[in-house]
Amino acid sequence: MTDRPPIAAVGTAFFAGLHTGWKATERHTAFLSALDDLQDAPGDLDEIATGHEILDERAGTEAGSPTPAQ
């Protein structure tokens, strides 16, 4: 994982300055919240798809194997 902010969030902040007022601020805040949720989704899906492998590694077994690895 990187410490850099996502490109979409940086672009959003750049263009947010073009629109002013409370309504624009509310829309920008709502958009950033939705964008954050959207960017979390691929990581969540990856964890669902590979979670059993991670648990097997921590338990000392191979994926799908009922006995510990030698």
UniProtKB/TrEMBL annotation:
<protein>
    <submittedName>
        <fullName>Uncharacterized protein</fullName>
    </submittedName>
</protein>
